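From: lab user (bench 3)
To: helpdesk
Subject: output format question, protein + manganese (II) ion

Hello, I'm new to running complex predictions and I'm not sure whether the block I got back is the full result or only part of it. Here's what I submitted:
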Amino acid sequence: MEMTLRWYGTGYDSVTLKQIRQIPGVSGVITTLYDTLPGEIWTPERIAAMKQEVEASGLRVSGIESVNVHDAIKAGTAERDEMIDHYIQTLKNLGEADIHMVCYNFMPVFDWTRTELARQRADGSTVLAYTQKAVDALNPEKMFASIGADTNGFILPGWEPERMARIQELFELYRSIDEEQLFENLRIFLEAIMPVCDRYNINMAIHPDDPAWSVFGLPRIIINESNIQRMMNMVDNPHNGVTFCSGSYGTNLENDLPHMIRSLKGRIHFAHVRNLKFNSPDDFEESAHLSSDGSFDMYEIMKALYDIDFDGPIRPDHGRMIWDEKAMPGYGLYDRALGATYLNGLWEAIVKSEAKHRCD
Ligand SMILES: [Mn+2]
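Helpdesk reply: Thanks, we reran it on our side. This is the complete output you should expect:
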């Protein structure tokens, strides 16, 4: 595996490439062109400039998170073919720039959903949190306004103000889309892009829906093992794979994370590893990565990745806000650096103890 950190780009991220370079064992970043809109073609010039900046710091571009999918593709409207053509062109430009992993999601209207961006924990850190009660009590069109005050002035991925301003229109767009239709629209998209992925060896890594269930009556499909198997079977190509995000699949306690990882051997192209602390089955907060601070056994998650010979990029996921840092919620430097170091420690211990067993 290759340890990486997500980086939003100069001007969008409070964390610098120099800082990332100084986290032990981190050799790459997962980045994006944060100011491009879904459907916009990423030009070779902009991709080259992004690569150059990252490489000048001694890091590499280990993959893209995300190339966002236009709503016309997800909802299957008249503009779909044109938007798919643009996506293919972007993939081609990335492939020609020697970038081979692209994370994306297929969530209607809302990207990830949290009800608090700064829930205070006993140690004084603040974390992102979700409570179903708050979602049930909320008018979805007011969702953004309810958390907007806690963003520390950063634009959150998937929650761009221009997108939220069109929220009613977006709900209208997806009114007639059920799970079956969303699967069908995903199939059409994947079949169309697989030839360019084959040609440039690009691994597509779909990010799960977060939380892993329907919110506000919208269909959500990338939520559990049987649905992912369905997605992989319907377009059976190794380049059609997943981002295994423990914090997203883990929102549903019925998802057995190590078991899911083992069932996805060969198709996990990217891993997001973090912990959640459940206060009840429908109230959780994003704890520190350490197993004992949350509800997941992080050793078992890393061991499962080791057992399937996972060799793609991995990153610590949302961190707590600690040590008075001011950053995009979930994306500060300090706690993600601690997370990377902890995951690297688990990995080293697993690798060495497995080698020892083989010798014994
Ligand atoms: Mn994730």
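A quick orientation on your result: The chain has a mean pLDDT of 93. Let us know if anything else is unclear.
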